[in-house]
Amino acid sequence: MGKTLNENLLAYNRYAGRKKLTLAISVIAMIFVALYAVGVGSIQIPMSEIVKVLCGGGDNLSRTTILNIRLPRVVAAILVGASLAAAGVVMQCVLRNPLASASTLGVSQGAAFGAAFGIVVFGGGVVNSATATSAITINNPYIVTLCAFVCGTFATAVIIAISQFKKDVGPGGLILAGVAMSSLFAGGSTLLQYFTDDTKLGAIVFWTFGNLGSTNWTELLILACALTLSMLYFMFNRWNYNAMEAGADTAKSLGVNTRSVMLVSMGICSLLAATAVSFVGIISFVGLVAPHIMRRFVGNDYRYLLVASAFAGALLLILADTVGRSVVAPVILPIGALTSFLGAPMFLFLLFKGVGRNG
Amino acid sequence: MVEVKNINYAYKAGAENVLDGVSFDIGAGECLAVLGNNGAGKSTLLKCIDRINPTVGATVTVAGKDVFSMTSRDMAQHIAYVPQNTTVVNMTVFDAVLLGRKPYIKWDTTEEDREIAMGIIERMGLEKYILRNVSELSGGEAQRVMLARALAQEPKLLLLDEPTSNLDPRNQHDVMQTVQKIAREHQICVITILHDLNLAIRYCDRFLFLKDAKVYACGEREVMTASNIEAVYGMHVHIENYGGVPVIIPFPDVK
What we know:
By secondary structure, chain A is mainly α. Chain A is built from 14 helices and 2 strands, in the order ααααββαααααααααα. Helices cover 75% and strands 1% of the residues of chain A.
């Protein structure tokens, strides 16, 4: 005898509950790893002391270390990882390309060029010390972010134009376009470096390694605002993204204005990635890898995938940063290099598996 | 119930029209088969009706309402479209059907949306697959899921682009029986593109022949004549009556 309608609905609710549980586990894992990361470094701080400091207590050394150095770094990892992953998952959806992300489409490199341009030409950055962790501070985040956004958006506009006007370009073609854009901006960055003075040159080169330790609370607030507003827009459109997974014609017949959703989403992704890159430098592959990991757990349903990807991106970046700070301590390895070590095999795996729609 | 007037469409400005002044109408609960050679403009016609392809000077009314002046959401509540070679979504059957409630969703689905989706899944005989991924289903089952998704929109007009392509004969008949039943029970108008003339004559009430971008013939059973089929497809046919069922037998070698 078949199940009744209510029994079938209950079975589905249990299934949806498992996806929500996955989200809850990723949040708990992220919080746990974040707390662990705060304690790791040249001065090991026990968990109990971290909790005390976060609750307003603790001794002065712990307070200074955690609130001025470790916590901004971990919060930066959370915000940047979540931003890049959220931008990546949305780009993969609206461009119908499983290899799309800010780094593979040239948006990160564009933003990096823009940020370097803002620092060198508009004086948006200043070199304030020779230490590795604070070689450059962005003293005018607005001009740097604006420059990063403009150049990141330019890369986005080229990708959108190619996908709109050359419809048979395919996923591989878009990635090649991204390679071309990256090359263009790399050339621009090289010229900037060639004509700038030695101090700024060193600072820019160091900056392109990716550095989570250079952010301050004001920059983190800007990142948090950009991420929150973007996630609100993405979540508001989660059913549109689900419809777009079924193909453009089906999405249109379901009442989705695919063109406007695609254009606005890509613009917001560009802003999000550009803002993140302008503050911490190029961090590759998080936007590509995090969504694909979470697709394995929650499927292609954007009601869950958006949030899950953001948490996974945050978790990945905290892990990469913690490894970078602890593996050859006290030397801190560049975060950009570590994420590339993590992401490149994943990228190759996706290529070998085939760049089919479901990745 | 559905009135289509003067649809003209060209893929590029200044190019020859692939549709030229196409007009027809259908009553509630009727199923209209769009017939014609490859490239006759059948799929383009459905996309023009569903506003996927923009047209100028045409009017489409569904239940007395002008489709071209509706909002996208309103239109999706009136017209559902199942494209040819639908992308098989990587989600569960229930989620794929629930997607049909998209035009009614404000922030998230309601209990009512979920009950409607589950009710349609049961009517389509898909209840044992609710948590299976659509990509794991057979072609016939996946086609049913796409139909169920379209029905979840609670449309007044259902547009189907070759719903039986890639299906075996058993599934072709099953799908068309379901379409006919849905049209009758829910008084939904169905416009379907079919290449199999026997499926068309068996399950559809009205027939529209497209030739050279224009309507060659449109009407009920009386237009399904050997001469019309020969003129449109360039192929000799016989129409026999086999136990009350009309059967079209092609003779491609006869000139």
